[in-house]
Fold these 2 entries.
Entry 1:
Amino acid sequence: MSLLGRQVAVAGIGYSDLSRGDAPDPRMLTLQSCHAAIADAGIAATDIDGIFEYLHADRESPRTMWLQRVLGIPNLNAYADLFATGPSGLGPPMAAVAAVGSGVCEMAIAYRTLPQREGNNGGIAAPPTSLAGPEQFTGVYGHTAGILANYALKKRRRMHEFGTPAQDYGQIALSARRWAALNERAVQRAPLTMEDYLSSRTIIDPLLLLDCDYPVNGSCAVIVTTAERAADLPGTPVLVDAMAWGTGAGADFVFADDLLYGGSIDCSRRIWELSDYTVADLDLAGIYDGFTHLPISWIEALGVCGFGEFGDWVDDGRSIGPGGVLPLNTSGGMLAEGRVQGIGLLAEAVEQLRGDCGARQVPDAHVAVVAGGGSNDCGALVVHSG
Amino acid sequence: MTGPITQPVPKPAPEPDEVSLPYWTAAREGRLVVQRCTSCGKAQFPPDLLCRYCQQPDPPFVGIDGRGTIYTFAIYTRSFSPAFEVPYALALVTLDACPEVRMMTNIVEADLAELAIGDAVEVTFEKRGDWALPQFRPAQGAGA
């Protein structure tokens, strides 16, 4: 606990219903997750003096001011609506940790609300007649559904550079389903075979459908406060040991110096400098699996195994599955529990470290890393049970 | 949902700004240029207000050899935009004369099934509205 002015805890977590096919009001989803997190922490809404959220479109998530108003919170000492920058759903809790740790606020709520329709990148749109700004160097080449193309470009480069077979990517997808089968909240619980993975539809070659996470209507919220304050609450707090953002050199989604790892290497170096723990202490990991490439590159960046060695290390999926050396995304992650862009992995780490995970509980779990982003948008936290 | 596309939809043209205007002007004249810093000697892309390696302002645009190497590529087999007919290859190409420069491009005039990372490519130019885009195609024979 060397980085923060005050010791910080995650004191509560909450989910909305996770669903597909319907179209619930994002405000309702947000209220569900925030009410659940407030109840889980055992606080009153009016104890909250900081609100943080992330959005990447226009209307998918209600803003912090709306939440303040409807919860009857008289004033906020800190808030931010993080727009399409940083480690997406992990951004709000990280901002909350920084705000509480520095003393700017005392009790923050952080949420990510993402309706299924905003989680789809496959819409067909007529292009404008001209493209300005960064798109004059990308969009003019048909860099459409850009995030999908980026992960197709990364996947092919990694396969070339390290001789990675497509099956290595499949291990991430298969493992997500193995864990999701143990998680009643997960939306996609059907088991998956390697044949299913390899024969799934091509999105942008070589990116397959089952490389991509599973869009749902969902919201997830966490309560962040000081460890001192959390100690007086009824629940079991989980403490933040270390936290780091990372962008990498030449930060850019397309033109960054390091296409494969983005800022994850710098972020990992920093978090291990700050942490009281080492990679050997990890009992589980929650790594944003918006695309299967991400956990693979993070596992290497964090030093769990060497660069290019994920395929050997993962041991046909055993290393990351139930009973493995590093259980990964034990909720099923974004690939199978459902896409709330990473904040769910923090909530899951908290549940694991509290010992509340039932059938999917990792025995004696005390230390977890949670990480997200794979380009110039990286962020990570080490959390522990104290 | 929209119905079948009956009118051809034009591909978007670049919209140059104050910084990028020399790049697009050169491309329209069939020349590939990049910014190369007179202080540290490094090239950069996309163009910017200063050299990102040493912060020297206004790095000048210089003509650069149009030979490159495919760094990675992706093939669109379903359309996300009516302007771009599938299949097409979107690639990142490094310039042989300054490997620190990685450009986004299509690989044109190519058998997409035969493309591979490491392939030698060369620049060509595609008219786009009032402007022209640098594009890359497989290098034409040995020593091209």
Entry 2:
Amino acid sequence: MMAGAIRPYQAVFRARFQLLLQYRAAALAGFATQCWWGAIKVMIFAAFLAGPVASPMTLRQTIDYVWLGQAFLMLLPWSADAELARMVRSGDIAYERLRPVDGYAYWYARAVARRTATPLLRATPMLLVTGLVLPALGLGQWGLGAPAGVGALGLFVASMALVVALSSAFSTLLDVLVVMTLSERGVNILVAPLSIVFSGSLVPLPLLPQWMQPFMQYQPFAGLVDVPFRIYSGHLAGWPAVAALGRQAVWSVLLVALGRAVMRRAMSRLQTQGG
Amino acid sequence: MSGSAIVVDRLTKTFRVAERRPGTWNALAGLVRRRHRDVRAIDDVSFHLADGELLGFVGPNGAGKSTTIKILCGILEPTSGTCTVGGIVPWRERVTHVARIGAVFGQRTQLWWDLPVIESFELLRDIYRVAPERYRRTSDELIARLDLGRLLSTPVRQLSLGQRMRCEIAASLLHEPRVLFLDEPTIGLDAVAKLAVRDFVKTLHREHGVTVILTTHDMHDIEALAERVIVIGKGVILADGSLTSLRRGALAERRLWVHFAGEPPAAIELPGAAVRQRQARSIELAFDPRTTSAHRLIASVASTFEVEDIHLEEPPIEEVIARFYAQHEVDG
């Protein structure tokens, strides 16, 4: 009965997904901010790469990396689930333990909804404006270019699916840590800068110093931004690209295992205050 | 599943509480060395409950009622001791266990805040993997019994507390559990809503034979519902029995109101009866029914004075419980 087994997780995913799609005002505000940030970053990189420098990335590749980064910013696991944090504080979390489901999978399904619905809302206008409107206005060189090829597009789509898996594993781990520390603030303060810097969201990872590169390519955050966006522009292609997809998958599995272990520990030590 | 539906055996739960003494210095010292204090929420609690019984769990705030319930629900693990519900140890086989029980925590919500009530119900249907035709039958009955028809399309955040509680109770029963835990289900409700909840629980218990464990601070809930009461204080079971036996043990006293045609007499001398209070036209007498017979007392009052009306009362249940707590030195 495979269909029956996944029914609860599908149901909670669907409910969260539909709910998150309703936050249109937040999406619009986010879109405006991200256009602004993206434009500034494009100008800065254009200034840097204009001189006679030997850059590990072309300006074209860098601009694609920046705009994709802005479009899919909400895929970064930079905060725990605010709703779960509220439930921890109010004690409603007790009800979560009353459901006849695998607790980790249940929260993972919530995280997948969060890491697909919100990015979808934000990415759609962003991709339209940078990929279609800017070229139509004759500003194509500052907008998002076409993918490097059909192969690159296929690998990019596969890699983005793995980003969702990896980011949801990160997010669920954060949720479990919130249960342990009873507040999402500490967790968010720690993880937001980590995920922005090490994913490549702040500065594309290939532009960081040479001596950092081996470490940067193997750490888990690279699989959130750097891998798919370099594949898109053709900076990462062929077997190295496939290997990078492999690293995304391995990190996803490891983070799921870690999240499950921490959750088991957190739940056995659960205390419910307030009578 | 026969015999005891719930067996609780020497259950103990200790919480570790971080302690900080007042003052800046102690706050700084706390950064280096934390002081912990062990708080025993429940201590050596044992009881049996038969299939289909309705148990009221009573005790002052912090007595350990909710901790016991949460262990029985599989949410908390005890420090020592064990319990089984329908033969299952709740925290060992949590998923199997929680599929068979229902729970309502009066101060929490299990409905999705932003969703209409009916969508919460449908989510729960999927989470508990209830078959469609069974869901239709159960939800129809619950909606009719709890009069939820007009609330179904309202988002939960817009419901009044009484409406929400009726929905919470329905939500806890969609998967037709055999055991229902109600933790302060009437807290904060107005008189009408309380009556609705009580009536529903009574029917559920009588017609469907559901085993119910109820905690409450409202003694009228207990009076209306519970065949059996466990009083818990400071984590220890103080009494286990019927309400009548609890009354007999704590405050057996009965009260006789005597209403006079004219001015009440200045002094009343009746063997075995004491004056509790006087009002303009009436006097309240207290007596112990074990030593003084009510009918002899009434006869002697009626023959001595010009009496208009007489009625007999038992002390209100709140007073019995307060007396009981005082006897056992637990704070109410």
